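> call design_seq(struct)
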C-alpha cells in the first residue's frame, strides 16, 4: 500500500475535510521538497519527505475541530499520535514518527507535563532531518487559510503562544533551512 492508497482508505469521500487535508498536506510537501532541493548538502530522502508530508495529518478526522470539518471526539492536539498509531498498523514506522513529532515545533516531555497536554509523557521531538524539515514546513500553512503561506515572522508569532522551547527549535530551523 502506498501513501495515496492510505489517504483514499481513510478519506474516501470527496468532501471539504478531504479537500482541506490534501490541500494543506500538498502545500507542506511542496515547501519541504523546495527546501530539500535548495539544500542538496543535507542529503534528504525526497521520496520519503513527500510521502510523510502528505500523511502527517492523517489522524485529524478523529479529532474535535469543527472549523476544519473534523467532528471526532479527541482533542486536536492528539491528531499526530492518532495518525502515528494508524500508520504503524500499516507498517509505516518512519512516516508515523513524522505524525507524532510535527505538532508545534515538536513537543518535549517538559512541555507536555507543564502544559498538561493529553499526550503520553515522553518527548515527541523531530529527530531526523526529514522529520525536522516537514515539521518546519508545516508551520507555514494553516488548515483554515489554505491559500496563504505564512511568513517566518507569522509562523514564529503562532508558535510563541506555546512557549520559548518550541520557538527556539523553530529559530534553529530557520537558520538551517532558510539560508
Amino acid at each position: 500500500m502506498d501513501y495515496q492508497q492510505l489517504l483514499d482508505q481513510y478519506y474516501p469521500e470527496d468532501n471539504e475535510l478531504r479537500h482541506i487535508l490534501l490541500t494543506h498536506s500538498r502545500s507542506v510537501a511542496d515547501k519541504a521538497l523546495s527546501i530539500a532541493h535548495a539544500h542538496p548538502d543535507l542529503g534528504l530522502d525526497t521520496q520519503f519527505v513527500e510521502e510523510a508530508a502528505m500523511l502527517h495529518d492523517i489522524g485529524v478526522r478523529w479529532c474535535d475541530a469543527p472549523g476544519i470539518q473534523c467532528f471526532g471526539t479527541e482533542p486536536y492536539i492528539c491528531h499526530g499520535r492518532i495518525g502515528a498509531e494508524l500508520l504503524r498498523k500499516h507498517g509505516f514506522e518512519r512516516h508515523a514518527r513524522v505524525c507524532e513529532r510535527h505538532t508545534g515545533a515538536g513537543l518535549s516531555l517538559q512541555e507536555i507535563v507543564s502544559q498538561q497536554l493529553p499526550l503520553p509523557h515522553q518527548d515527541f521531538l523531530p529527530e531526523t532531518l526529514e522529520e525536522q524539515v516537514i515539521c518546519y514546513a508545516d508551520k507555514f500553512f494553516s488548515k483554515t487559510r489554505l491559500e496563504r503561506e505564512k511568513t517566518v515572522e507569522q509562523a514564529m508569532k503562532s508558535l510563541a503562544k506555546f512557549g520559548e522551547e518550541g520557538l527556539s527549535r523553530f529559530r534553529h530551523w530557520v537558520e538551517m533551512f532558510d539560508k
